[in-house]
What does this fold into?
Amino acid sequence: MIRRRKRQPRGRGRQVRQGSIVSKIRVWWPRIALTLMVLFAGSLIVVDRIESRMTREIRSGVADVFTPVIAALSTPFQAAAEWFSIFKSNAAIRNRNVELIKEVEQLRIALQELLILEEENKRLRTIANAGNRLEGRHFTAAVVADTGGPYIRSLIVRAGTANGLRRGMAVINIDGLVGRIVETGHHASRVLLVTDLNSRIPVQFAASGHRALLSGTNRRQMRLGYVSSDINVSVGSLIITSGHGGLLPPGIPVGRVDSSSRDSILVRPLVDWNRLNFVRIIDFPAPGLVENNPVEVRTREGRNQAERQ
Amino acid sequence: MNELVRRTVLSAASRIFPLMTAMVASLVGLIAVPAPDYSHIAPAFTLIAVYCWSIWRPDLMPLLAVFLIGVFEDMIRGLPLGVTALVLLTAAIFAQNWRGLVLERSWKRFLSTFCRVVLLCMAIEWLAMSILIGDLLDPTAALLRYLLTMLLLPVGTAILLTIRRVGIRDI
It folds into this structure.
């Protein structure tokens, strides 16, 4: 007589002796796994605070891979926005056209004056050995994603190291300073906006030349700090980059003083964040700064030499 | 044989459907919608996806998957790594614990549980970010985000229900 052993079910349904270590682990496993994951999440936060090169590169890589996907997902929304703009009333468009024609005429007159001033400025800067205001190469990049949510003010632009971008570069648009590059992937980069809580920019009053430090607040206004107590700050004063520290070019408009009190001076940025589709990135040759990565420097120098030839 | 291979592939694809939908949800949350200040109050689509799948199919949304989605979202949003993972894990744990109650009762129960879970998650995120930045952050944007997430829950749920019906009915 052949006695068949009763087959035990595989996997989860398999019988385990009550009270054994395996059964105890099986009962406690969901809680153990959860605790481990919460601990791992906590340690990730700590590791990320160190800002290691590895985490930065992983972030850049992920942004690089998914930027085309986000761009593709954004297409219908941008198309819809353009579609709605077409449906503006005819009369409104006609009025706008008249306004724009007037504006163009005024701007043409202003442009003539500006060209004369630019020549004069160049001549004077050459005499003073001050260099050009926005010297260096410029790149144009499309804004793909508006990231960060309520806590971080940043953007992802569709240009990266392949286009010659590197960390620290200034990002501007026609209105003024947008922010600076903080992460670079191969084809995508992250821009930290001037309004972000971590943003600190050395600035000066355009009229008086008094220096200050502009800090982001995560709100619509930025806070001006380290302002000399003996100067009279008036609402509407233009704030521009001072260029101190050598990271940002001097003279880029940043904002206008919105309110001034004894406790704080608030500045409203010039950039309209809701119309930010394209930005310009300035490769500003920082004078006197020592580069961290000699390979990167050599590559850039070689490229510049090739361009000159 | 071909039928077996086809079934195996389809089954495997169906199993990663919840993970994929949550990833797509996190990408959708990043879309540059041309609306004033939208990006600051963009709804937490990933939270909706994780909550719904944790209630409907917790076997297809294990905690490890939730953790990975959180890390992915942190990377793409530029947030400190681990913050969203912590938030999504909280949502998944509560959803899985209250699963029985939610499934037995009505849509009203589903909504009220979601209300509480999202509020808790947003509070954890706000607290974590405040600690990391070292300053008590303004909670207004987070509250508006919470309201927008609540408003968009029916739409998100309807989309996920359709995906569930079409994509993973066989497993």
